Amino acid sequence: MNAGRVIGRMWATRKDASLEGRRLLVVQPLNFRGAETGPELVALDTVDAGVGDRVLYVTSSEATIPFRPGLTATDATIVGILERVDHVTGSW
Amino acid sequence: MNAGRVIGRMWATRKDASLEGRRLLVVQPLNFRGAETGPELVALDTVDAGVGDRVLYVTSSEATIPFRPGLTATDATIVGILERVDHVTGSW
Amino acid sequence: MNAGRVIGRMWATRKDASLEGRRLLVVQPLNFRGAETGPELVALDTVDAGVGDRVLYVTSSEATIPFRPGLTATDATIVGILERVDHVTGSW
Amino acid sequence: MNAGRVIGRMWATRKDASLEGRRLLVVQPLNFRGAETGPELVALDTVDAGVGDRVLYVTSSEATIPFRPGLTATDATIVGILERVDHVTGSW
Amino acid sequence: MNAGRVIGRMWATRKDASLEGRRLLVVQPLNFRGAETGPELVALDTVDAGVGDRVLYVTSSEATIPFRPGLTATDATIVGILERVDHVTGSW
Known about the structure:
The structure is a homopentamer. Chain A is mainly beta. Chain A has one domain: CATH 2.40.50.220. In chain A, 0% of the residues lie in helices and 43% in strands. Chain A is built from no helices and seven strands. Chain A has a five-stranded mixed β-barrel. A two-stranded antiparallel ribbon of chain A has the order 6-7. In chain A, a hairpin with a 2-residue loop joins strand 6 and strand 7. Chains in contact: A-B, A-D, B-C, C-E, D-E. At the A-D interface, strand 4, strand 5 and strand 6 of A face strand 1 and strand 3 of D. Strand 1 of chain B pairs antiparallel with strand 6 of chain C.
């Protein structure tokens, strides 16, 4: 799983039926020192995350697990809101 | 999921039977500031996307979900047309 | 899916039983401008590809789909021979 | 599988139900010469690992295997504590 | 699939039950010109590979296929010993 920050939201009227009614959030991957670790991605939301939140997200086929037993065409899903981290570089 | 732009189309007469009748589109991955984020890939289409469209695509085994219950030998599928994005750098 | 060129062939006498009788081809990933986009990989063949052919290949668990219902220990499979590409940089 | 060192711990009150009661550890990927090989990730724990331990972790859908038959929304799981390595550059 | 060379072995007493009795080998990914193409990884062995052998390995969920029907928590498995390669740069 990776950490990131929600930096935007996306709308798509024409989309796969399994994505209907899902919020599409733009996430910037970050490490725990706050540095960007890769390009932005679009993730589905399961924890009512909003712009500015630091989140934990899963990728690959695990991203579909929170929506089972239905099959949802996603490869990235936010599964937690980061609340506290104890890290070799300090806590926050 | 990632954003990209459709920049071409590809034809293959000899191909796996599960790809018969599918449109093969060339997609350039982009971030929301318009910068290229990786090499081009070939994706199947589910939303009637055309050259020039900004699209949302899924990769890995999730790319097969829109074609279930049949099994399709794809690892990248376009699942939405980007219509509007609200992003820390502005909306479009 | 990605594009590449077949640049070699590999033999392995000791190998997993699911690979018996399969051709192991060495593929150089390319973009549609002909530039190399990553390190070489070894892919199984489903379309009788030969050295020099430009091909379309799938990776990850989708690579096993052309060989179902049997389970084959591959994570890369050639699924098409590139015949024609219309691309923003021209056709070929 | 990859090697890494546990360098922190993370808490998330709002999270996917399948993550309830699981420890979320921050792992720095390392090679066997001790160099960092990529950005930090968050992994679930199955072997009671602690901060400072060198560990072996799996990613992708294999990360869910230790928690089967239940489905857990993880794409990284620690599956071993590194005890000894014999390596071309020496043993430790 | 990718090519690599076995450069070490790893021991973990505390590990996931599905890894019990499996040999954990350290593999350096290589291309066919002998250059390193990425960081070392740890792979399970199915072909009795030893240190120094050039091998073919699979990653992702395909790595579990040689151990089916049981579920093994691995994302990298050696599936062949490279014996001969005919490559645009020569044979060996």
